[in-house]
Design brief:
The protein has one domain. It is built from seven helices and no strands. Helix 1 runs parallel beside helix 6 and helix 3 runs antiparallel to helix 7. It starts with a helix and ends with a helix. The longest helix is centred in the middle third of the chain and has 39 residues. It has 194 residues and is mainly α.
């Protein structure tokens, strides 16, 4: 759902999203959402093989805690930056306003930011799965579902911006607020049983 939210933000705030770029965005989100749990899983597996199961369990707990707070801070920074820049843009005269163009760098950054908390899911997968072969099945399912949800988010974002009549600064404010709420959700979902 975090990839869906950021894809929605991309659809709202980025100008020039073509069909090919839509598939690039959705593919990036899908790949990173599947790749990060795999990394978390193999970190715990590696520590467990080197130092034993108790050390693997402790490494998993530490990794999960670091990842959650890192995701919170990064999403808060990016969302806050987007919000502030959009408010500044809103105050400019119409002829000085700049639309946010599509950027491969930003898409890759957002795909990593939304997937960082998925490292913690990989740690959980390690303790919950008895067979490492099923990890690959989980990864593929995560990638496919994230890809589909990201396409839906992009589609909705591009339709909403048409309703806003191209007011990208307003959509930037909405997008910044979504990212900030997403940062709060990452923390709440870690500490509260949601």
């Amino acid at each position: 759902m975090d990839a869906f939210s950021v894809a929605l933000v991309d659809g709202l705030t980025m100008k020039g999203i073509t069909k090919g770029r839509s598939f690039f965005i959705a593919g990036s989100f899908g790949f990173m959402q599947g790749f990060m749990p795999l990394v978390g899983f193999w970190i715990v597996e590696l520590v467990e093989q080197i130092a034993g199961s108790i050390a693997g369990e402790k490494a998993g707990q530490i990794t999960a805690l670091i990842v959650v707070w890192l995701a919170f801070v990064l999403l808060l920074i990016v969302g806050g930056k987007m919000l502030i820049e959009s408010i500044i843009e809103l105050r400019k005269p119409q002829e000085e306003k700049e639309e946010k163009q599509f950027s491969y760098k930003n898409v890759l950054l957002y795909s990593v930011l939304t997937a960082i908390d998925a490292l913690a899911a990989g740690v959980t997968m390690h303790t919950g799965l008895s067979n490492t072969g099923t990890v690959w099945l989980h990864v593929v399912i995560i990638m496919v579902i994230t890809f589909g949800l990201s396409l839906v988010g992009l589609f909705l974002g591009t339709k909403i911006i048409k309703l806003l009549k191209g007011r990208y600064e307003i959509s930037g404010i909405i997008g910044g607020c979504i990212l900030i709420l997403l940062a709060v959700w990452v923390i709440l979902s870690h500490y509260l049983p949601l």
